[in-house]
């Protein structure tokens, strides 16, 4: 694995040896019996099936090298409603894409909604291919509130983006936890929405959208 100033470079050359092995010619007839050759063919077929299954299930199955980069830093954030009251100055939607994983809400690096069925959304300003989304949960209190939230990715703003396809669902997260939620396959979209379908507050201390960018 290589790294650059832009992010992590994922190189699928790790699969090259497997491909070479899978396309290897049969052993010469004079070195093994027909039964042995049949066994070799069966083993090759099995390896092919396993390799295809692995490539399709891995989030890094894109055939060429690419960089995985947090493109949320380039975007613009909004939310259903901002918390009102004594601590509303800390609650801006943009706090969740400031590049800071500080999970203490009172340090001013978390977003905070108000009202039922809240949502938070980042406009990436263009369409990207997205492999995963990394969430940092609030740490100074109330970490259980995020349970049941849905991560949605797509190009529609209908119903504030909550009708876009689902990348993943957030289960139980501990206070202050940072966790990466991988989509079942890379998804394309301009908008990433975190939607909490219940009557509770939604606070996010960092949202990182991990897009796949060609490596030149």
TrEMBL record:
Cellular component, GO annotation: extracellular region
Gene3D superfamilies given in the database record: Galactose-binding domain-like
Family: Belongs to the fucolectin family.
A molecular function (GO) term: metal ion binding
Alphabetical list of PANTHER family matching this protein: FTP DOMAIN-CONTAINING PROTEIN, SI:CH211-215K15.4
Record's subcellular location: Secreted
Pfam families in alphabetical order: F5_F8_type_C_2
Protein source organism: Anguilla anguilla
Assembly: Homotrimer.
Domain Fucolectin tachylectin-4 pentraxin-1: 68-216
Record function comment: Acts as a defensive agent. Recognizes blood group fucosylated oligosaccharides including A, B, H and Lewis B-type antigens. Does not recognize Lewis A antigen and has low affinity for monovalent haptens.
UniProt name for this protein: Fucolectin tachylectin-4 pentraxin-1 domain-containing protein
Gene Ontology BP, a term: regulation of complement activation, lectin pathway
Keywords: Calcium, Disulfide bond, Lectin, Metal-binding, Secreted
UniProt superkingdom: Eukaryota
InterPro entries (UniProt xref): BG_Antigen-Binding_Lectin, FTP1, Galactose-bd-like_sf
Keyword Disulfide bond on entry: yes
């Amino acid at each position: 694995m290589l790294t650059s100033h832009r992010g992590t470079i994922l190189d699928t050359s790790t699969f090259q040896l497997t491909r070479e092995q899978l396309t290897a010619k049969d052993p010469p007839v004079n070195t093994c019996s027909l039964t042995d050759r049949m066994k070799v063919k069966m083993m090759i077929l099995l390896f092919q099936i396993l390799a295809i299954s692995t490539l399709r299930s891995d989030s890094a199955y894109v055939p060429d090298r690419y960089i995985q980069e947090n493109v949320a830093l380039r975007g613009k954030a909004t939310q259903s409603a901002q918390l009102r009251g004594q601590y509303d100055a800390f609650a801006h939607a943009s706090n969740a894409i400031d590049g800071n994983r500080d999970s203490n809400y009172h340090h001013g690096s978390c977003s905070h909604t108000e009202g039922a069925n809240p949502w938070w959304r980042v406009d990436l300003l263009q369409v990207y291919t997205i492999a995963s989304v990394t969430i940092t949960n609030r740490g100074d209190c109330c970490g259980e509130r995020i349970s049941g939230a849905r991560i949605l990715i797509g190009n529609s703003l209908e119903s504030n983006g909550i009708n876009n396809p689902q990348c993943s669902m957030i289960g139980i997260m501990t206070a202050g936890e940072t966790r990466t939620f991988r989509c079942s396959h890379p998804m394309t979209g301009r908008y990433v929405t975190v939607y909490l379908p219940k009557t509770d507050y939604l606070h996010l201390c960092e949202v990182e959208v991990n897009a796949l960018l060609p490596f030149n």
